[in-house]
From TrEMBL:
Gene Ontology CC terms: apical plasma membrane; extracellular region; lamellipodium membrane; membrane raft
Protein name as it appears in the record: Dipeptidyl peptidase 4
Keyword Protease on entry: yes
PANTHER family the UniProt entry points to: DIPEPTIDYL PEPTIDASE 4, PROTEASE FAMILY S9B,C DIPEPTIDYL-PEPTIDASE IV-RELATED
SUPFAM superfamilies xrefs: alpha/beta-Hydrolases, DPP6 N-terminal domain-like
Positions of region (Disordered): 41-71
All copies of domain Glucagon / GIP / secretin / VIP family, residue ranges: 69-91, 180-202
């Protein structure tokens, strides 16, 4: 097993201790045989040492009093007990041993001494100390041997005095010893004991009769000091015990209060060297990246006086939108009311105001021209006080969408509430038109206030797998000649026949646009480049500039085709797609369409971040072979062979292994965000030398707050299943003790191209479960997960509900065999796709899991939307993949739920995974006479937010505690 984690193995130290004890025993045996006169007349006690070695340890309670140090190491009172017994017996033996001159007795005494100190005796008992998660040992020998054994030994050298008769200076030194907050122990006793030992040893030498005694006595002292000092040096600074850690744990209330969220630096670039920052009080500042100077401020009082909650500057900073009346619609979409504020006159623009409930609004990339969508139609204002010019007229609610996507495009293709794209200089607008006339409608009740006699009915055009899809068209409008309106449609390339999707729109210049189209099955795409013809005002898309992409093992891209980044010639470009080995890498495509790889290896490029004439930046998971890592790399052009340099890898390895960036418009500067594994931070860098010029956020306040809380630790490791290397992570309780048995909760998503195992910092429900309830929370990325090559990701193509389910069960079995996991208390939970996997796992009858929670689960893939489902499953028809649609339902496994405890949760107003999905699971379980728990959240969507957020996590916590028999 490859171990790549924050837990470090230190086995050599333990081995060194065994060797020290063996040598000490051997030399002291020789010393014993050389002494001619008895040191003390206590023959009766000479037999006690051997007897103590074989006596059973009947103080069983001491075995259970385990302690956890703040650094992650362990201590047990069992260790302390063994230390005390061993040191006491050893001192007693030294004090009582005498030489009677008989060879037989000498041999017997040698054997008594050698056995307990050899690798099979004292060292063997030392090996019984607590083994820590990182492979190190700790015991109270650090304090005891320094403060007890050494003092007893020197007292014996003097005249056999016990500890109670020990000199006052040593007792004073003992009081000086301190156990520190971080678990280490220091004391001035070492210095004092050194002085005392020298004095007392000289006195003893005066009374000895032969030089042999002197030499052997000196050797004995050296060995004993070494035997004591070496283990102490190895074991100090290991951390405090569990019982000595008086800090509180991280509670459920802490998580639900949102008081422990880390801060991000709010930044939006408006030029190559200027950005907008929203301050804590809500004011907007325009800041120079060059020197950090605040160039302009829109005060929060101005925003509030207008009844607004936020604002957005125009690119020339002469005007600002003031937004109010926010109303959420779907995941990304909302409506709001906007007023325009004149920064020059410090007044609101009252001429030709914008309408209420605007669906989308944006400034042009330069100046202060603007476009907005209202009632599904597009409007343009050439300047804030100008009259609005209507661009489209056919917009209709739930039927024709102009400039905004319908539900399925918003959720699955664009990931935004905009379908409108300005050209770089604002001379053209490209927009999509979606026609949902033929799309089936999903309906569900919205209960609203309890005074509403009849609930409302929500209707959404929602294409499910195999159903009719929306049709899409793309138009380009010349904003320089809006009267009369000049709009041109860009037709779909001939190579894309039948039903299709518009996937990516990219402006290259003001007169060149790049479009990417997908077939409905999404395993074939065509990239087209279209140019504006000034002579006749048309757009031409020559076939020779098209670039095709096809997948023979799955689908195109991770979720859709990647965005191209055009070079300075505006003809060639850089793009991420799978190479011949199935790993996603950067390729350079020239004018003739020839693709040349820029990066390669058994790792993946996550995204291209910026391209200039001199360099290219990208994010990848190459560093350390960790799929869950993210680092920034730079390729410099014009230097012969292409070599990538990691910019972030060595900046702060312990704290930062997961980065993201935000580049200014000409890539002169960039914001480098570190998201973990330590506390997040961010800094502003310049591209010329990649040096940090300003730290913008360090989360110092959060760091100080967490110092007073016992926080869990996180480890990331890999395991081998079915010939593949897969990664998992565990959130471990504070003071984790590998000799104990912990309940384990498997936190699962496991959807196509998902990744749960990474190096990002998070404070979430798992933090509470691990910290307060002492539950290990694990996650595992099996077949179907992303960022590890197409072989793993495409393994579940057309087979959802198979391998990803099997792998989660196999991972849980592997975890159950780890000595610290209670195999009788293993649970699983997930949300959305994770809810589906949870349900399928529990319904498998594996016998691994005791209970599970499924939130908003899919239950049958025919119930989910077309773009997502068909990308991975094809069509649910006889001549395609109907068989695997039918074999992947939760309902078919209802009978097996009798073996587990199951909590099913769903929001009644879930527009994404409809309540229908949970209702069908419930129906099947009832029909199978399965006893289960269910919770629904009235009028809540897929996210179950608001007050329901607190309720759901409280309810799930109670369920898990009950399942694990926790008080």
């Amino acid at each position: 097993m490859d171990k790549v984690s924050t837990l470090y193995i230190e086995y050599p130290k333990a081995m060194k201790m065994k060797s020290v004890y063996f040598v000490a025993g051997l030399l002291l045996m020789i010393v014993q045989g050389s002494w001619q006169n008895p040191l003390q007349d206590t023959e009766e006690k000479s037999r006690s040492f051997k007897a103590s070695q074989s006596e059973p340890l009947d103080e069983s309670r001491q075995l259970n009093e385990v302690k956890r140090h703040s650094q992650g190491t362990f201590t047990s009172d069992y260790s302390k007990y063994l230390d005390t017994r061993r040191a006491q017996d050893f001192v007693q033996w030294l004090m009582s041993t005498k030489r009677n001159g008989q060879q037989g007795q000498e041999q017997r005494e040698n054997e008594k001494y050698l056995d307990p100190l050899s690798s099979n005796g004292l060292a063997k008992r030392h090996a019984e100390f607590e083994r820590h998660a990182e492979g190190t040992y700790t015991s109270d020998i650090t304090s005891y041997l320094e403060g007890q054994a050494a003092k007893e030994f020197i007292a014996w050298l003097v005249n056999g005095r016990g500890r109670r008769d020990f000199p006052e200076e040593a007792l004073a030194a003992e009081k000086m010893g301190r156990r520190h907050a971080d678990g280490t122990f220091t004391s001035d006793i070492n210095k004092i004991l050194d002085d005392m030992a020298a004095k007392e040893f000289l006195k003893w030498l005066i009374n000895t009769k032969t030089i042999v005694k002197w030499l052997l006595g000196f050797l004995a002292v050296a060995v004993i000091v070494t035997a004591i000092a070496v283990p102490v040096a190895l074991l100090t600074n290991r951390g405090s015990s569990h019982s000595s850690d008086t800090r509180r744990t991280f509670t459920l209330e802490d998580y639900l209060s949102d008081g422990y969220n880390y801060k991000r630096y709010n930044l939006q670039w408006i030029s190559g060297n200027e950005y907008v920052h929203k301050t804590v009080d809500g004011s907007l500042q325009i800041i120079s990246a060059d020197n950090g100077t605040v160039l302009k401020t829109l005060k929060n009082t101005t925003i509030k006086d207008a009844g607004a909650t936020t604002a957005m500057f125009s690119p020339d900073t002469k005007f600002a939108f003031l937004q109010s009346g926010y109303k959420k619609l779907w995941r990304h979409s909302y409506t709001a009311t906007y007023h325009i504020y004149d920064m020059t006159t410090s007044t609101l623009v009252t001429e030709n105001p914008l309408p209420n409930d605007t669906q989308y609004i944006s400034w042009s990339p330069v100046g202060h021209k603007l476009a907005y969508v209202w009632n599904n139609n597009i409007y343009v204002k050439e300047f804030p006080r100008a009259k609005s010019i209507q661009i489209t007229t056919n917009g209709e609610e739930n039927t024709i969408f102009n400039g905004i996507p319908d539900w399925v495009y918003e959720e699955e293709m664009f990931g935004t509430h905009s379908a409108l794209w300005w050209s770089p200089n604002g001379n053209f607008i490209a927009y999509a038109e979606f026609n949902d006339t033929e799309v089936p409608v999903i309906e569900y009740s919205f209960y609203s206030e309890d005074t509403l006699q009849y609930p409302k009915t929500i209707r959404i055009p929602y294409p499910k797998a195999g159903a009719r899809n929306p049709t899409v068209k793309l138009f380009i409008v010349n904003t320089q000649s809006l009267t009369p309106l000049n709009s041109t449609e860009i037709t779909v390339p001939h190579k894309i026949s039948g039903e299709h999707y518009l996937s990516v729109v990219t402006w290259v210049t003001d007169e060149r646009i790049c479009l990417q189209w997908l077939t409905r099955i999404q395993n074939y795409s065509v990239l087209t480049v279209c140019d504006f013809e000034k002579n006749n005002g048309t757009w031409l898309c020559p076939e020779e500039k098209q670039h095709e992409q096809e997948s023979n093992t799955g689908w195109i891209g991770r979720f859709q085709p990647s965005t191209p980044y055009f070079a300075l010639d505006n003809g060639s470009y850089y793009k991420v797609f799978s190479n011949s080995d199935g790993y996603k890498h950067i390729h350079y495509i020239n004018d003739s369409g020839l693709a040349t790889p820029i990066t390669k290896g058994k790792w993946e490029v996550i995204s291209i971040e910026a391209v200039t004439k001199d360099f290219l930046y990208y994010i990848s998971n190459e560093n350390g072979g960790k799929p869950g890592g993210r680092n920034l790399y730079k390729v410099e052009f014009g230097k012969g062979q292409i070599n990538a340099k990691c910019i972030s890898c060595d900046l702060d390895q312990e704290r930062c292994q997961y980065y993201s960036t935000s580049f200014s418009q000409n890539a002169q500067y960039y914001l480098l965000n570190c998201y973990g594994p330590g506390l997040p931070k961010c800094a502003l860098h310049r591209s010329s030398d990649d040096q940090a010029i300003r730290n913008l956020e360090n989360n110092t306040d959060l760091n100080n707050s967490l110092k007073d809380i016992q926080m869990p630790s996180k480890k990331v490791e890999s395991i081998n299943l079915n010939g593949n290397v897969f990664w998992y992570q565990m959130i471990l309780p504070p003071h984790f003790d590998s000799s104990k048995k912990y309940p384990l909760l498997l936190d699962v998503y496991a959807g196509p191209c998902s990744q749960k195992v990474d190096y990002a910092f998070r404070i979430n429900w798992a933090t509470y479960l691990a910290s307060t309830e002492q539950i290990i929370v694990a996650s595992f990325d099996g077949r179907g997960s992303g960022y590890q090559g197409d072989k793993i990701m495409h393994a579940i193509y057309r087979r959802l509900g198979t391998y990803e389910i099997e792998d989660q069960i196999a991972a849980a079995r592997t975890f159950s065999e780890m000595g610290f996991v209670d195999k009788n208390r293993i649970a699983i939970w997930g949300w959305s796709y994770g809810g589906y996997v949870t349900s399928m796992v529990l319904g498998s009858g594996s016998g691994v899991f005791k209970c599970g929670i499924a939130v908003a689960p899919v239950s049958r893939w025919q119930f989910y939307d077309s773009i997502y489902t068909e990308r991975y499953m094809g069509l649910p028809v006889e001549n395609d993949n109907l068989k695997y649609y039918e074999n992947s339902t939760v309902m078919a496994r209802a009978e097996n739920f009798k073996q587990v405890e199951y909590l099913l949760i769903h929001g009644t107003a879930d527009d994404n995974v409809h309540f229908q999905q949970a209702a069908q699971i419930s129906k099947a379980l009832v029909d199978a006479e399965v006893d289960f728990q269910a919770m629904w959240y009235t009028d809540k969507d897929h996210g179950i937010d608001g007050q329901a957020h607190k309720h759901i996590y409280t309810h799930m916590s109670y369920f898990i505690k009950q399942c694990f028999s926790l008080s």
